[in-house]
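Reviewer has doubts. Consider these tokens.
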Amino acid sequence: MRTKNTYFLLLLFCLGFSFSNYGQLSVDAGKDTTFCSGVEKLYLGKGVSIKNGVEPYSIAWECKVPKGSYSYYTASDLLNDTTVISPYFRGTVSPNQWINFIIHVTDSENKSAMDIIRVRFSQFYYLTGYPGVEIHKGDSLLLKYSSIGGGIEPLKFQWHPETGLSNPDSLVTWCKPDVTTLYDIVATDSCGCVSSPNAAYYVMVLPTGFNEIKNEAGNLLNIRQNGNGIYFNNPLKQEARMSIYSINGVTRYHLTIADDHLDIDHLLETKGIYLVKISVGELTGSGKYLKY
């Protein structure tokens, strides 16, 4: 059974504990944070809270990140100013790597406190170039190539444009476009960071009736692109009839030359893929030309 003296001693203990902690400087650096790379300026310390101190405060940020066997990045390497509460990053380290930043606070009465916040950077990487795939109108193609990596996994994907896609919100989707289409893909990671759109597939829908010549006679012409020109087998420099089409089948040029090549880049104003059909005597063949 508790006596009055017990309650009195308990009260004194509580009051003593309260008075001993009242006025004690403290700092809270905020919650651990993942930053999305690509933002113009990323600020550290937005969630810093300082209590029970007497202003003005002196601030010092500290970190130590290995960059080699015997060297380190410090806060002054990564931050624009280590003496303000909320500096911005002027450099980053390896993506997805957690960094411990320590904030030191000293008030005007020379009381000090410190706290730690962990931060990391979500960064995507992109593959350049993309496959060009030919299909005939009405055919389907399975898209399953992301061309984007990095981020904080798992990643979610979305295709653009959505035209002709069975499931544009999935990495793997069937594609059945009516016209030639360049498909971009966008990734969103588990922290909500969003990538830039990145080209993944160039799907060329061949017009009805345009089929690349596969017979022996056509293959003998060996139509091919070399630099800015179209080259083909015509050793006797016979008269060659050449037709150039846009990828959707619109006729751009009909030409007749007596040579085995033609510089056609200057004839074409718009970048893209063009279809070329050439006839030399009884030989007829077709090929493609890519204008960069």
